[in-house]
């Protein structure tokens, strides 16, 4: 017969799991709002180091935040311009791509025929519907107005969040009292999150620049666009680089033939190996290494809850949660079970 104490020990974990499930379902229902808030938080965290440097240079908070928002706007406008320019190049060269595809398929079918392999399935897979692709791209462009509105709200939230940064320590001390140590804990948590975001961004820039540079040297169309997409999609671990590599390899095959595609594939493997094993290791501390199992699970979880945006936010959001758990002695055991070591104190710049 179970004692009340045993029932209590069994009930608490079950209630905790049920509460977690309810929270996740609620987040899924509020995915649109959460996505905007998370992107705003990430932009705010990336803007804090810039703001500190501008403050040290003698600029006021308002002027510093204005400069940061202008930098964000310039980056967004540059990205939008590059997308439109790349789409224009792609659509204008569709007849050329159709001609090249016919030639490449003919070469490929001849090779398969030598080995008595039917190429009908290969031809059906590699021969896309160009009209459908053009229509899909135009629909994406037409949806730009809704995206522009979302970006406006994100920048506004980021602007006011940056202006509130310096006021937060005082507010925390009012709640918990001076000398409670909560302000230092919050600074450590924020410093760890910022350092991870900066490290990942630096690594992605190196990877994207190398990837785009390789395509540019080989003469692949829209090389700069693919390099920029590699920077953005590399926030999705393991999957992001594969997503951006497929169209680049396809274009390399169209323009340069089979050996061109092989060169691009080999180049991608070399670039990824060098960046992940040397560049990231140089920028990152051991505490930034996330176990692969956790990465895969979080990608599946946050993409289910937050939709496609969750693919990009999965790891940053997980890093934020881990930093929060490590910041409290009561929850630090959870991160230990997940395979994270105590990151220790991070010196404030």
TrEMBL record:
<dbReference type="Pfam" id="PF01594">
    <property type="entry name" value="AI-2E_transport"/>
</dbReference>
<dbReference type="InterPro" id="IPR002549">
    <property type="entry name" value="AI-2E-like"/>
</dbReference>
<dbReference type="GO" id="GO:0016020">
    <property type="term" value="C:membrane"/>
</dbReference>
<keyword id="KW-0812">Transmembrane</keyword>
<feature type="transmembrane region" description="Helical">
    <location>
        <begin position="9"/>
        <end position="26"/>
    </location>
</feature>
<comment type="similarity">
    <text>Belongs to the autoinducer-2 exporter (AI-2E) (TC 2.A.86) family.</text>
</comment>
<feature type="transmembrane region" description="Helical">
    <location>
        <begin position="261"/>
        <end position="280"/>
    </location>
</feature>
<dbReference type="GO" id="GO:0055085">
    <property type="term" value="P:transmembrane transport"/>
</dbReference>
<feature type="transmembrane region" description="Helical">
    <location>
        <begin position="62"/>
        <end position="84"/>
    </location>
</feature>
<feature type="transmembrane region" description="Helical">
    <location>
        <begin position="205"/>
        <end position="229"/>
    </location>
</feature>
<protein>
    <recommendedName>
        <fullName>AI-2E family transporter</fullName>
    </recommendedName>
</protein>
<feature type="transmembrane region" description="Helical">
    <location>
        <begin position="292"/>
        <end position="325"/>
    </location>
</feature>
<keyword id="KW-1133">Transmembrane helix</keyword>
<keyword id="KW-0472">Membrane</keyword>
<feature type="transmembrane region" description="Helical">
    <location>
        <begin position="32"/>
        <end position="50"/>
    </location>
</feature>
<feature type="transmembrane region" description="Helical">
    <location>
        <begin position="140"/>
        <end position="163"/>
    </location>
</feature>
<feature type="transmembrane region" description="Helical">
    <location>
        <begin position="235"/>
        <end position="254"/>
    </location>
</feature>
């Amino acid at each position: 017969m179970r004692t009340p104490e045993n029932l209590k020990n069994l009930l608490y974990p079950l209630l905790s799991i049920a509460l977690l499930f309810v929270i996740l379902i609620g987040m899924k229902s509020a995915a649109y709002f959460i996505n905007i808030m998370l992107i705003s938080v990430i932009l705010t965290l990336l803007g804090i180091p810039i703001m500190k440097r501008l403050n040290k240079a003698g600029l006021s908070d308002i002027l510093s935040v204005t400069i940061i928002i202008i930098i964000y706007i310039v980056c967004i406008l540059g990205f939008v311009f590059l997308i439109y320019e790349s789409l224009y190049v792609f659509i204008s060269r569709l007849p050329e791509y159709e001609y090249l595809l016919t030639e490449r398929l003919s070469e490929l079918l001849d090779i398969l025929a030598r080995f008595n392999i039917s190429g009908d399935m290969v031809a059906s897979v590699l021969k896309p519907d160009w009209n459908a692709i053009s229509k899909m791209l135009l629909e994406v462009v037409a949806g730009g107005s809704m995206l522009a509105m979302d970006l406006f709200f994100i920048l506004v939230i980021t602007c006011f969040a940056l202006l509130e940064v310096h006021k937060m320590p005082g507010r925390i001390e009012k709640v918990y009292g001076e000398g409670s140590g909560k302000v230092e804990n919050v600074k450590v948590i924020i410093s760890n999150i910022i350092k991870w975001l900066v490290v990942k961004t630096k690594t992605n820039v190196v990877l994207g620049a190398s990837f785009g540079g390789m395509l540019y040297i080989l003469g692949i169309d829209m090389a700069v666009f693919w390099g920029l997409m590699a920077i953005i999609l590399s926030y999705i671990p393991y999957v992001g680089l594969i997503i951006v590599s497929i169209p680049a390899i396809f274009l390399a095959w169209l323009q340069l033939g089979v050996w061109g595609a092989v060169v691009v594939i080999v180049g991608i493997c070399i670039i990824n190996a060098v960046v992940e094993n040397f560049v990231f290791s140089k920028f990152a501390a051991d505490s930034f290494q996330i176990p692969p199992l956790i990465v895969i699970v979080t990608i599946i979880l946050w993409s289910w809850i937050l939709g496609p945006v969750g693919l990009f936010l999965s790891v940053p959001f997980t890093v934020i949660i881990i930093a929060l758990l490590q910041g409290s002695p009561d929850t630090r055991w959870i991160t230990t079970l997940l395979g994270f070591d105590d990151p220790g104190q991070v010196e404030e710049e």
